[in-house]
Protein 1
Amino acid sequence: SSDVCSSDLCGAQFIVSPGLNPKVVSWCIDRNIPVIPGIATPTELEAALDLGLTTVKFFPAEAFGGLKTLK
C-alpha cells in the first residue's frame, strides 16, 4: 500500500499490480485512480468484480497455461 501512495504522490495516472490486494484496490478507487490488478483464478476474478473492477490482467499468464486457459 505504501508503494501505491508513493506512486500517487509522484503523479501516477493508473496502478497496475501483480496481484489482487483489496486494500490497494479500495485505496485507488477512493482516489479515482484506475487500478488493474493481476488475477489468475475464477475466485480472484469474482473478488475483483465484487470490488467494482471491470478491468484485470491475467497474471502470471504463462504459469497458468497462457492463451489456452482463456479459451
Protein 2
Amino acid sequence: GPTILLLIYLLQEEMKKEFVEITLPAQLQNLEAILKDHNEGKGFFLGDKVSGSDLLLVRGSLYLHALCSTS
C-alpha cells in the first residue's frame, strides 16, 4: 500500500543523498586525477583529441548535474 511506497521513496532519497554527498565527490576526485595525469589536465582523457571517453564523461556530468539539482 501507500506505506510501502513511502518507504521505497524515502530509501531512494537517502541513497541519492549518500551518493551525492559521499560517493560522487570521491569518484570525481579520481577522474580529476586521471585528467591531470594527461597533459596536466589541459587536454582530453585519452589521446590528443576528443574521444568517446570524453563524450561519455560530458554526458554523465550532465546527468549528474540534473540529479544534484533535484536534491
Protein 3
Amino acid sequence: RNPASVRVVRPVREGVISDYTHALKLVDRVLDTATGIGRSYGFRPAVLFAVPSAATGRERREAHQAIRRAG
C-alpha cells in the first residue's frame, strides 16, 4: 500500500526496461550511491549488468544505453 501522495514507478519489469526515463534515473541514483562524490571528479566506475537471455535485441540495447548515459 502506498499513500495517495506517492506514485510508484516500476522502470524494470521481469528483468527488462519498461520505462526508459525512470530506468535511467534509477541507474544514475544507484551509481551515485555506490560511488559517492567520486563521479563528479571524473571517476567512472566499472559496471557489470545483466539482461535475461530471453530479452530482445532492442531491450538489450536499451539497457546498455541506460547504463552508458547514466555514468
Protein 4
Amino acid sequence: AKARPRARAPAPAMRVLGIETATWSASVGLSRDGRAVAQRSLATRGNHAVSLPELIGATLAEAGWRLADLE
C-alpha cells in the first residue's frame, strides 16, 4: 500500500497592526489573516507620538490581544 502524505498543520494566524498617520487623524487597525478585527481613529493636533500608544493599547484591548500577539 502506498503511504499517504501527511496532512500539514494549519499555519498559525497572522496578526497585524496597521498604523496610519499621514493626516491630522491617527488611525490604528488590527487584522487577523487579512480580515479586520478592530480599528480606531483619533483627530490629533499633529503630534501622533503622544496619542498613538493609548490608541494602540485601546485597540488591542478591544480585540482581546496583547502586543506580544502581533507578528
